[in-house]
Recover the amino acids of this structure.
């Protein structure tokens, strides 16, 4: 009976055989087919196909994506992708860009720790390779920095070590989607190596199946008969094809042989035949593999260009996005009225649209024309922030449902208003701040509700009276406050630091949305929390969400999403947290170019 091996590596990633040498070795082992599945690269496929020409063996174009799920490194194998398509090439370019950022930072850290290495030296040492930590370890050993590869990992580049930088990876769900869109066949590799409980593994497979997973590796070098039975049962539960592979790396995994594993592995030709039959069905039923996604996009610096508009290509892509049945959410630190104004002046009257204002404090359904969710600061918290700002000489204003609420007109307010059409209500008594922020017992509202009578020792309490008079202005409390300092960034930072102990106690987040804007909102709020809340309300798993942004206040949203898009003009922390960095900035339709392949 013919045998196959559907999980094999060459020296284009971390194997030791060249792609051509693998073909000869597979023939020597009597295989009828093998899949070249190097890590995050397809650079060896052409060489392998050329070497197999005219020989009795099939080389299957493949890849093995490294992804992240619940803090674990999960591998998704893809077979039969159109690896030369523009779409697939663009996706790999994004992988390379993310790896480069991470590798350059690791080189910097190693140099700081007394092991001089530049990214250029590393690339020269291992040309035409996908650089992994194993390459760093071998480089360090060759230079005498460490005695063994194990020492390099144990002391310097292993998980949690001082020179290790975790590369932000795509989710396994996103890897499945990429493989499907490239016409390929996605498979969950070596599922028992992740050491999940049966319940956790079942949950992962369920999510992947919803995204379009087609196979699972039941036949693997380290599997016992009991392991194989367990994975076959899971495959049957979710209607997945069985796959199998040795995970051959050559000398990098001593004792593990191509097609044989550790001696007992055998993958019959019929395993591949079933995969080929399913793959043929998939190509004739593409509608069965589509699902709804939801895009959360920041406005300024992301969706909007410097003129506060969107380009024609961006408009075209957004129309295509919603026409395909996907949801669109405009997210901003602005008040919800201002976000509505932006939607209206842009002419974005699209189906399935939602608005998030106040950095996640309010979620609005454009179709139903109603607020779905709202979280606020208390009035005493608001007054404390404004009172401390008065002492520090920093402009702070807040919001009602209909107005911007400010103590006075000043340069900062005029600057803020140049792009915001929400009307302003001046309320000088807000400047009293802490003088009315306390209740009769000296407690803030987070510690006790203010007293309805407003009396103490039998006399009217003027502080409580003044505070209560602000209730009609501020309502139940505002979703956020914003501090603005146009000329002295250090003063704004000193103000933030002065409030840190209080903010931590009160569970209030203080986040810069730009170098001159400091936002205050409940820690239970935030764009990331709003993303999770709206996904829950709509019955969409957050792993199937996409978030795009450029500033620090977008960070929680990008981290909470299934796929994070950082603009090329984004802050460094945002670019480092994202899974994709746009090829262009917000003035050149950067978001649209990253989004078009997700439709």
């Amino acid at each position: 009976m013919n045998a196959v091996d559907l999980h094999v590596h060459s020296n284009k990633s971390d194997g030791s055989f060249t792609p051509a040498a693998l073909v000869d070795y597979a023939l020597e082992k009597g295989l009828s087919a093998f899949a070249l599945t190097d890590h995050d690269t397809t650079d060896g496929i052409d060489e392998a196909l050329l070497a197999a020409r005219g020989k009795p063996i099939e080389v299957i174009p493949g890849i093995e994506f490294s992804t992240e799920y619940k803090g674990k490194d999960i591998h998704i194998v893809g077979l039969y992708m159109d690896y030369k398509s523009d779409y697939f090439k663009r996706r790999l370019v994004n992988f390379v860009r993310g790896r480069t950022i991470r590798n350059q930072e690791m080189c910097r850290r190693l140099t700081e720790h007394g092991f001089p290495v530049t990214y250029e030296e590393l690339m020269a040492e291992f040309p035409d390779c996908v650089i992994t930590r194993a390459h760093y370890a071998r480089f360090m050993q060759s230079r005498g920095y460490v005695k063994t590869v194990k020492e390099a990992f144990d002391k310097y580049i292993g998980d949690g070590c001082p020179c290790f930088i975790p590369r932000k990876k795509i989710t396994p769900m996103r890897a499945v989607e990429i493989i499907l869109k490239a016409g390929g066949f996605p498979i969950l590799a070596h599922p028992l190596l992740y050491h999940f409980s049966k319940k956790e593994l079942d949950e992962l497979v369920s999510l992947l199946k919803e995204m379009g997973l087609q196979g699972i590796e039941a036949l693997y070098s380290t599997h016992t008969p009991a392991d194989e039975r367990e994975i076959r049962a899971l495959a049957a539960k979710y209607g997945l094809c069985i796959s199998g592979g040795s995970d051959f790396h050559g000398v990098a995994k001593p004792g593990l042989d191509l097609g044989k594993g550790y001696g007992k592995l055998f993958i019959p030709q019929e395993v591949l035949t079933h995969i080929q039959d399913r793959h043929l069905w998939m190509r004739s039923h593409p509608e069965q593999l589509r699902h709804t996604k939801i895009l959360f996009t920041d406005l300024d610096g992301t969706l909007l260009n410097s003129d506060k508009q969107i380009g024609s290509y961006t408009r075209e892509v957004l129309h295509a996005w919603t026409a395909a049945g996907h949801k669109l959410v405009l997210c901003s630190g602005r008040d919800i009225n201002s976000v509505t104004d932006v939607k209206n002046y842009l002419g974005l009257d699209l189906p399935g649209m939602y608005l998030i204002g106040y950095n996640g404090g309010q979620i609005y359904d454009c179709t139903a024309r109603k607020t779905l969710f709202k979280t606020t600061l208390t009035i005493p918290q608001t007054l404390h922030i404004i009172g401390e700002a008065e002492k520090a000489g920093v402009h702070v204003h807040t919001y009602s449902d209909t107005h911007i609420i400010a103590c006075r007109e000043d340069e900062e307010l005029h600057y803020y208003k140049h792009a915001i059409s929400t009307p302003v209500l001046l309320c000088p008594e807000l400047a009293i701040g802490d003088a009315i922020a306390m209740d009769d017992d000296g407690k803030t509202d987070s510690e006790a509700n203010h007293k309805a009578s407003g009396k103490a020792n039998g006399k009217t309490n003027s502080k409580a009276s003044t505070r209560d008079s602000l209730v009609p202005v501020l309502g139940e409390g505002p979703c956020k406050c914003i501090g603005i300092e146009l000329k002295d960034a250090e003063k704004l930072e000193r103000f933030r630091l002065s409030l840190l102990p209080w903010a931590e106690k009160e569970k209030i987040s203080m986040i810069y949305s730009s170098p001159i804007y400091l936002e205050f909102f409940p820690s239970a709020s935030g764009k990331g929390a709003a993303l999770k809340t709206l996904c829950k309300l709509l019955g969409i798993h957050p792993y199937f969400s996409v978030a795009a942004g450029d500033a620090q206040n977008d960070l929680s949203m990008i981290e909470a999403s299934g796929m994070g898009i950082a603009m090329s003009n984004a802050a460094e922390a945002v670019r480092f947290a994202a899974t994709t960095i746009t090829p262009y900035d917000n003035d050149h339709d950067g978001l649209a170019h990253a989004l078009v392949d997700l439709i």
Notes: Confidence is low (pLDDT under 50) at residues 435-460.
